[in-house]
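User: Quick sanity check before I run a bigger batch. Here is a single chain. Can you write out its predicted 3D structure?
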Amino acid sequence: MLLNAVYYMEFSPRYHHTADMLQTEQHLIEAAKQNPEHFGPLYDKYYKQIFGYVYQRMDCKDTAFDLTSQVFLKALTNIEKYEYKGVPFASWLYRIAHSEVMQSFRTRKNQRTVNADISDLRNICEEVEQEYMEEYKSILMTVIKDLPEEDLQLVELRFFEKRQFKEIAEILNLTETNAKVKLYRILDRVKKTLTKSNKNGN
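Assistant: Done. Predicted structure follows.
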């Protein structure tokens, strides 16, 4: 898998739903289960979010369009299997999208894009208790780009997309506790790498 240059793309999906919004959404889902023709409102609601998720990771619009279409086709085909787990329907769609993106990297050898801005990097530095300094930017991004794909996904979802652990767990098919433990271990490795780089620099 190849990693190309880091870039930032505006990304502001509505992850957090109120209880009333979730209940309304459940009515839409049940209607779609009864009749596939009623899937339209769910498609309209989440298409831009899922396309943005896919496009940010591949940096190829045509491929992103194709994969997004595949995500919704699979969602429609398998909607009977959907089970409510206390998070928006989008989380299930993101799980399908994640699977499609990973498969695309394996079969098409597409480039993998990492998306972050300065505030994202600052948040990570704060988490690992490192003073944020200008010279850490390139070091930190190099460390992030070298992470295994599963670890990179966790970092992106938590720090770059500001998702809650409950939703991260649903997308990556983990328990919430496992997602937290995995992220803690990733940050610990990042901290050790930054500390080592700082010592070598001195």
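The chain has nine helices and two strands.

User: Great, the batch can go ahead then.
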